[in-house]
Amino acid sequence: MKYCSACGAPVSRRIPSGDNRHRYVCDSCGTIHYENPRMVVGCLPEWHDKVLLCRRAIEPRYGLWTLPAGFMENGETTAEGALRETLEEAGARVEIVDLYSLINVPDIDQVYLLFRARLLDLDFAPGEESLEVALFDEHDLPWEQLAFRTVRKTLEHYFEDRRRGRFPLHFDDLDRRS
Amino acid sequence: MKYCSACGAPVSRRIPSGDNRHRYVCDSCGTIHYENPRMVVGCLPEWHDKVLLCRRAIEPRYGLWTLPAGFMENGETTAEGALRETLEEAGARVEIVDLYSLINVPDIDQVYLLFRARLLDLDFAPGEESLEVALFDEHDLPWEQLAFRTVRKTLEHYFEDRRRGRFPLHFDDLDRRS
Ligand SMILES: [Zn+2]
Ligand SMILES: [Zn+2]
Questions:
Q1: What ipTM was assigned to the predicted interfaces of this complex?
Q2: In terms of DSSP bridges, do strands A23-26 and A11-14 run parallel, antiparallel, or are they unpaired?
Q3: Do A116 and A100 contact (CB within 8 A), yes or no?
Q4: Which listed ligand is nearest to A8 at the C-alpha?
Q5: Which of B7, B111, B128 sits opposite A78 (nearest CB)?
Q6: Is B64 left (phi over 0), alpha (psi -120 to 50) or beta?
Q7: Which of A84, B6, B106, B121 has the fewest CB atoms in 10 Å of its CB?
Q8: Which tens digit of pLDDT belongs to each residue from B14-71?
């Protein structure tokens, strides 16, 4: 951020009075530009003993496999966002079962909210952001070609939980790398 | 948003190619300025049969009672944010028990994440954003002077759950008013 979105003047990075964090502050109109974490919402679509994954057609992690998920948009609920991303990326219609995985990724200011979901039919097809969409069971899943640590962790929980026959909500914080 | 934060030129509101939503797009450098929902994180601090509330010293809802909560900041986890807000607004040290309430407020692009928490001592005191901080049981709680629907809903769940002796995570979507 270099310029004020309210007045177009340059911003500087400083601690506003009464605050204790560095913010972008407009030198001209005084607007403080707060920045907050974003939510990534998505689904873990199930079909019998398989789960649906998408192979990414975009950066980052082009060509790697992921669960259908993306940034939550204004005006929607977390579940609505998860359904939208699943339809957009995988062309897949699902019914949400439950929130399954809440993962903090403080290094990149993201919080993942992934829902367990039941795939309603097999008429899925890659959207513009996916190269392919496919169903995998635990053993043929491309574990070495997963796009994100959040996705790996959620899938690890999932197959462990399947053996136990119960699917509690999992909370994870990804390690800070810095 | 009127000006591009990357280059300072005016922005216009339109649907970028390949997208299906209106965004602020820079007419000069082409930057698309996405806007996403924010998380409000906070605690429901318990002390025996009482809960801690703060009376707001700021707008909106000046003078009304609320749970200690505020916008999650970059670089922190949801639980860290909830602890920070509880310390800032109520001067209260708590230990988080569990996530208790996840409430979508799509009308104002917010998601509330409220944690049940155990108050560690009684040395709390209002922070700059609070007029007073106090403990209430169900019957003396200022039900008619609560600041937010999210807080009311969470407190209603809480006292009902206390009677049942179990505290599952509650999901709510506040009605769209428009
Ligand atoms: Zn300005
Ligand atoms: Zn620009």
A1: 0.95
A2: antiparallel
A3: yes
A4: 1
A5: B111
A6: beta
A7: B121
A8: 999 989 999 999 999 999 999 999 999 999 999 999 999 999 999 999 999 999 999 9
**Domain A1-35 in this protein, CATH class:** mainly beta
d(C-alpha A105, C-alpha A113), whole Å? 11
Domain map (residue ranges) of chain A: 1-35, 38-173
CB of A171 within 8 Å of a chain B CB? The answer is yes
Superfamily of structural domain A38-173: Nucleoside Triphosphate Pyrophosphohydrolase (3.90.79.10)
A104 touches chain B (CB under 8 A): yes
| Closest CA of chain B from A135, distance in Å | 27
Sequence-separated (6 or more) residues with CB below 8 Å from residue A127: A87, A88, A89, A90, A91
- What is the per-residue pLDDT across A61-105, written as a single tens digit (0 to 9) for each? 999 999 999 999 999 999 999 999 999 999 999 999 999 999 999
Give the one of A8, A78, A169 whose C-beta lies nearest to B104's C-beta: A78
- Cβ of B78 within 8 Å of Cβ of A111? The answer is yes
Contact B130, B54 (CB under 8 A): yes
Q: Tell me the CA–centroid distance for residue B9 and ligand 2, in Å.
A: 5
Nearest to A104 among B1, B77, B106 (CB): B77
Ligand nearest to the CA of B3: 2
Ligand 1 center–CA B6 separation, angstroms: 13
Q: Kindly report, residue by residue over A101-159, the tens digit of the pLDDT.
A: 999 999 999 999 999 999 999 999 999 999 999 999 999 999 999 999 999 999 999 99
Amino acid at B78: T
Please report, as a single letter, which amino acid is at residue A113. Answer: L
